[in-house]
Design brief:
With 287 residues, this protein is an all-alpha fold. It has eleven helices and no strands.
Length: 287
């Protein structure tokens, strides 16, 4: 039951990323983030009356808002990277970096890491090198950048760092706070990007199809959070986090099946390494 819930959250997270990236190909990134984040917030607010009572401290609110800023920026980078690059390359790269951030932070704080964790970090670096190699079969619309990296690769790295900070921020909140830190995160991210839209004079309007995929992506993302938190509260966290961190697989599969994306052998190897690296990094943690 726990394993099914964790795998379900991975499928939902990866699907949310796919539809978010798909929306960003039809509308501007800022509008995509606002629509998807708002859809997730509405879904969570509707679910609140059915959730257990919680106690939120000022510290929880602060870390929740902090998570919103970093997570919103991370999502914006991710959606843009998914829009301009190959989804099967972008998603694993972001996931690996996001998984590495908490591990490196723990190491900097003096925690002793297990050997397999270091192996995971090394494998992650190898994965990044492999997926950064442009595929020879790619067309000119998605040709490599002048520096030799696939389109969106740099944005994927920035997204991974921001998402990693998002995970760290949420980790500082208390269990008693329930889902409220996520509400604070959504409020801060929506406020941030609405302000950016006004300052940059970017429209938040989009066509019906883009609005539909953005709403679907935001709802899937929030549903993933709910399923993940349910699994984490009733089962071993290491198992739940490991399975949930496999979310790039669903993004890759959806991109392959729906968009018919083509990859080089090196990139396929890099994606496999990235998925194994996420498993090693998250499952081993600190000793």
């Amino acid at each position: 039951m726990i394993e099914l819930l964790a795998l379900g959250s991975a499928v939902l997270y990866g699907s949310a990323d796919f539809f978010g990236g798909l929306t960003a190909r039809r509308a501007n990134t800022i509008a995509t983030v606002v629509w998807s984040q708002f859809a997730g917030l509405v879904l969570l607010l509707l679910a609140l009356p059915f959730l257990p009572a919680s106690t939120v401290s000022s510290r929880d609110w602060i870390w929740g808002f902090s998570a919103g800023f970093s997570g919103g920026i991370g999502v914006a980078f991710l959606y843009r990277a998914l829009a301009v690059g190959t989804m099967a390359v972008v998603a694993p790269t972001t996931a690996v970096i996001a998984a590495m951030i908490p591990v490196l932070f723990s190491f900097a704080m003096g925690e002793r890491l297990r050997p397999l964790t270091f192996a995971g970090v090394a494998l992650a670096l190898l994965a990044i090198l492999l997926v950064s190699r442009p595929a020879s079969t790619q067309n000119t619309a998605i040709a490599a950048t002048p520096r030799g990296f696939p389109p969106g690769f740099g944005l994927a790295l920035l997204s991974g760092i921001s998402v990693g900070i998002f995970f760290l921020s949420l980790a500082r909140t208390s269990t008693a706070a329930g889902m409220w830190p996520l509400i604070a995160a959504r409020i801060s991210s929506i406020t941030l990007f609405v302000a950016i839209a006004f300052a940059a004079k970017r429209t938040l309007l989009m066509d019906r199809m883009a609005a539909g995929t953005a709403t679907l992506g935001g709802a899937l993302d929030m549903a993933a959070n709910a399923v993940y938190m349910t699994a984490a509260r009733i089962g071993p966290l290491s198992v739940v986090v490991t399975l949930a961190s496999l979310y790039p697989a669903s993004t890759v599969l959806l991109a392959r099946w729906i968009l018919h994306e083509h990859l080089s052998r090196a990139q396929i190897a890099g994606i496999i390494c990235a998925l194994f690296a996420v498993v090693l990094i998250v499952s081993q943690g600190a000793a």
